[in-house]
Amino acid sequence: MTTQQAQVLACIDGAALTESVCDYAAWISEKTEAPLKLLHTINHHHETSIKSDFSGNIGLGAQEHLLEEITELEQQQSKLKLKQGKLVLQAATEHIEKKGIFPSSTQRHGDLIEAVIDLEQNIRVLVLGLRGQVHSDQENQIGAKLEAVIRSLHRPILIVNGSFKAPEHIMVAYDGSEAADKAVDMVATSPLYKGLTCHLVCVNNNEETAVKLLEKAKAKLLSAENIEVIATKLKGKANLELCAYQESNNIDLTVMGAFSHTRLHDMLLGSFTHKMLINTKKPLLLLR
User: Fold this and answer.
1) CATH topology (fold) of 169-287
2) Which residue, 57, 264, 266, 24, is CA-closest to 157?
3) For the segment 8-33, what is each residue's pLDDT rounded down to a tens digit?
4) The CATH homologous superfamily of the domain defined by 7-45+80-158
5) Highest mean pLDDT: which of 16-20, 73-77, 223-227?
6) In this predicted structure, what is the pLDDT of residue 219?
7) Of the candidates 140, 145, 152, which has an alpha carbon nearest to the alpha carbon of residue 129?
8) Which pTM was predicted?
């Protein structure tokens, strides 16, 4: 029995960030020599809601006839969504093939969250855009399904929020948590980060604690081959300090743990991860 090689899975929907999602997924695929797969999902929730909202209000004499028309419209919309998805996958495939990478692709009916959970066992890294078609023009919003995907999946997730740039400087946001240790281990061992400059940044108002945390993580990174490490301790609000550091040091990619607080804490104060997603200008690679 052979084990399928873990894939880079790129979720695309034809929105503004689709090309960048493809570019970052292709970059990971090339650097790690992992196969690349494109995923497009077709959600029929909107059509079914139309039928349930209006069918009960149709007059008795016309009900059967109008329900037939509604069913026909649903079928037409379904076919159009299917065709649109195939065109999106075709365009994405052609774009990536120009880089010398030949991805596979799949189109699924149903919810994106269900699809990625179903495929989780064979995912090495999931790549998707910060915003889909619904929120494409709303800079203070994240995609409707993004938070649920992050919470549901136990695989690295790269959130793309702008044009592609091959990373040269990365930042690891380190706080000593299990997810942060996982991020350090990944950077130290993955071929994705070879030859890059890694900024190891700890935001902690207790300087002694910050020094201890940085020494521990820096030692692990320095054991890796061909990674330059710059360790920095900062004070203040973590999301503000990290975003400011990111801009002032030309960071191309930030690696960090995701949603480490409890759900209650998130509801009361708003999650650190959510704030980073909204405020950062460069891609985030999240680990749980």
Assistant:
1) Rossmann fold (3.40.50)
2) 24
3) 999 999 989 999 999 999 999 999 99
4) HUPs (3.40.50.620)
5) 16-20
6) 94
7) 145
8) 0.85
